[in-house]
Amino acid sequence: MTDDAAAPALTGGALTRSRILDAAARLMSTAGIVRTTTKEIARAAGCSEAALYKHFRDKEEIFVRVLHERAPRLAQAVTELPGRAGDGEVAGHLREVVGIAVRFYRESFPMAASLFASPELLAAHRRKLVPGTGPEVPTRHLADYLRAEQHLGRVAADVDADAAATLLIGACFHRAFLDLFFDAAATSGPQDDERFAAGIVRAALGGIAADQH
User: Fold this and answer.
1) Model pTM?
2) Residues 6 or more apart from 194 whose CB is under 8 A from it?
3) What distance lies between CA 207 and its chain's CA centroid?
4) Please, are residues 98 and 168 in contact by the beta-carbon 8 Å criterion?
5) Which residues have a Cβ under 8 Å from the Cβ of 205 and sit 6 or more positions away?
6) DNA-binding region spans which residues (predicted)?
7) Which residues touch 94 (CB under 8 Å, ≥6 apart)?
8) Rounded distance, CA 156 to CA 72, Å?
9) Which residues contact 165 (CB under 8 A, 6 or more apart)?
10) Which residue, among 173, 21, 61, has the nearest Cα to 109 in the 3D structure?
11) Which domains, from first to last, does the chain contain?
12) Residue 186 — pLDDT band, cuts 50, 70, 90?
């Protein structure tokens, strides 16, 4: 099946909404959310600001929808993960999530970082978050998956699932931060991300303590 058959061309309001999100993603990734205005987004999308407000309440809602619809689908991947316990290989599931997480943080970090320069905007964004959609969610779902695998005997029973999930997601965030800081994001390809995912998952599953036996 071709992409055209799977996703019919957008028209009307759906097309306008898609163009708004595309424009917002471009602008927010370069200028950040604080410096990007709805007027600039509308202009870049080729529509009026009034048309923009027909689809979104405010800039914060646009930002959230960009993260959910234009960034790699991290939330979807981790939400589905506990239901995959017992299927396939644990390492394979973890590598997949790590790969998506690195791409998600690499793309979303430039947009989200400027939130911390505006305490008022950050507080407003925090208030508007729908329960179950905050930045802590990927770690929580990943921990739930590890616990599910523990019940099946595929992850050691004495492993702290919350700590392991935090280490994995934290490593992804750190990788994305360093890529952006050293301007390596433009040169990091799929193979680099695959090697990183394989190494992080191998370290997490194997542990770092020397064998004392």
Assistant:
1) 0.84
2) 95, 99
3) 26
4) yes
5) 90, 91, 94
6) 37-56
7) 168, 197, 201, 204, 205
8) 30
9) 139, 140, 142, 143, 146
10) 173
11) 12-70 (1.10.10.60), 72-205 (1.10.357)
12) low
